[in-house]
Amino acid sequence: MNAEKFGTFIAKCRKEKGMTQLELAEKLMVTDKAVSRWERGKGFPDIGLLLPLADALDLSLTELMCSERKSKEEHYPQDDTALAVLMESAVEMNRHKRNQDRNITWLACITMLITAGCIKIYGYGSIGGGLLAGAFLAFIPIGFYLLIKNRKDPAGRKVYSLFILFGMLLALLLFTYLNVDRLFLLWGSFLLFSILIGILND
Fold first, then answer.
1. How confident is the model at residue 202 (pLDDT cuts 50, 70, 90)?
2. Which of 47, 74, 146, 173 is deepest in the core (most CB within 10 A)?
3. Sequence-separated (6 or more) residues with CB below 8 Å from residue 152
């Protein structure tokens, strides 16, 4: 299933019904940010939300999954093949979401462990303090990951760029507090800014 086609179709159907993203979100008991994310093609609803979403937009499940409206005269195949296609699409949507969540978790854990190890080895603090520092620093790799995954989306690029800059600010404050060499901080910041600009200009 194509995420962008799916999102465009949802947005079109919602507007045809005169609903705002917030109104649709309230019907589904999710946030309007979740609806915005679907409509921008940056994610899929959970499998359990597909039927309520189809109902809210007056669509059949087949129409929702295929991202196109069918005329009343058209026959909806109910055989095993059609069901298999629907299930395959649902599984793919769920797999995509799980993969992204897993990658973000791994990035956060690796960043926390490396930071904690470095802080302990170089005598800047304890393991506990290092893990806390790593949690702050995790904003940077997670932001870069989300930025790269969503670099074709102008709104997403702005949000994730701010996410990265926030992480860099926290890192600078933390390392300044730990009395880390300022030349190292300067070069590290320059390198991160260069990478960020390179991604944004891609």
1. low
2. 146
3. none
Q: How confident is the model over 61-91, as pLDDT tens digits?
A: 778 888 888 765 554 555 445 555 666 676 6
Report d(CA 83, CA 75) in Å as an integer: 14
CA angle 95, 106, 142 (to 5 degrees): 90
CA distance 154 to 146: 13
What is the rounded CA–CA span in Å between residue 139 and residue 166? Answer: 8
Structure confidence at residue 36 as a pLDDT band (50, 70, 90): very high
* 15 Cβ contact list (under 8 Å, min separation 6): none
Contact between 70 and 76 (Cβ < 8 Å): yes
Other CB atoms within 10 Å distance of the CB of residue 187: 11
Q: Give the count of beta carbons closer than 10 Å to the beta carbon of residue 137.
A: 22
Contact 29, 49 (CB under 8 A): no
Could you write out the DSSP letters of every residue in 42-67? Answer: S----GGGHHHHHHHTT--HHHHHHT
Six token digits for residue 140? 């940077």
Selection from 172, 168, 176 nearest residue 196 by Cα: 168
For 128-177, the pLDDT digits (tens) are: 878 888 888 888 888 888 888 777 777 777 788 888 888 888 877 777 77
Which pTM does this prediction carry?
0.53
Q: DSSP assignment, residue 75?
A: -
